[in-house]
Amino acid sequence: MSVSGLMRYGAELTIVAMLLAALRRESGVALAVNVGDAGWIIERWLLWGERCYDAFRRYAKRSSYFGKIGIVPKTGNLNEPAGNPTGFFVF
């Protein structure tokens, strides 16, 4: 297997771990892990997902590319108050 293939699998596993971390945090539903021979590997992987999810949330809060969902003025500036009823929704 090539280095790029390993990097791709690592990135995909990280994204899945981040999704599981978000699911646990936002809904309280967690992956049921049997503590056995490989249980510690799965727990470490889930902790990695938690750390990556925290880092991404910090980045998204500071970044100008992300904003709260709601009515945005026609200027598209998320920092302006959304008092304009002719604004649009950001999904």
TrEMBL record:
InterPro entries linked to this entry: Mitofissin
Pfam families associated with the record: Mitofissin
Name of this protein: Uncharacterized protein
Species whose genome carries this gene: Henningerozyma blattae (strain ATCC 34711 / CBS 6284 / DSM 70876 / NBRC 10599 / NRRL Y-10934 / UCD 77-7) (Yeast)
Upper taxonomic lineage: Eukaryota, Fungi, Dikarya, Ascomycota, Saccharomycotina
